[in-house]
Amino acid sequence: MAKKSKKQQSGGTPATVALTAAGVTYTVHAYDHDPSHPSYGEEAAEAMGVSPDRVFKTLVADVDGTLTVAVVPVAGQLDLKALAGAVGGKRSAMADPALAERTTGYVRGGISPLGQRKKLPTVLDASAAAHATICVSAGRRGLEVELAPEDLQKLTEAVLAPIGR
Are strands 27-30 and 159-161 parallel, antiparallel or unpaired? Predict the structure, then answer.
């Protein structure tokens, strides 16, 4: 696992470029992705030696016809009904993976809530507020970014709500 500060990183993903442009303090964690691992998020937590309740996965759902980003701990699951309620919707279902990839500009397992091709409504699970820092995808499999949940919430204009279970 490599750890780089924003000053050491060259190039980057749209997520890290957005963080740098915003002047946010963050740390990049890189690890060798194992395509046979059953869970991208759990793999990230294991590889980084970070508790799964601090590593968050980015999911894209369809809430009443609007693609919506949900950011929840990898240790749990997304509560689709709670997600719909958090954005004033009635019905929610997971989005088609190909549509999620086209809309965000990222591949499944590497979708970041930051630097997406199209800005989508975002909901961050309320449990994030209990941590000084959390980890989310930096925009590709095997690359995570660690930052303060307040910074993630501000940059994505996320609603903070209990959407995980």
Answer: unpaired
pTM confidence score: 0.88
Count other Cβ atoms within 10 Å, centred on residue 145.
27
Name 28's bridge partners.
Answer: 4, 145
Which pLDDT tens digit goes with each residue over 95-112?
999 999 999 999 988 899
Gap between the Cα atoms of 7 and 27, Å rounded? 10
**Both tokens of residue 80?**
């689709």
Eight-state DSSP code of residue 112: -
- The residue written with tokens 């989005």 in the block is 95
pLDDT of 28? 92
Phi, psi for residue 11 in degrees, rounded to 5: 70, -110
Tell me the C-alpha distance between 160 and 143, whole Å: 24
Cα–Cα distance, 139 to 88 (Å, whole number): 28
pLDDT tens column, 52-71: 889 999 999 999 999 999 99
Dist. CA 64–CA 90, nearest whole Å: 7
Q: What is the DSSP letter of 13?
A: -
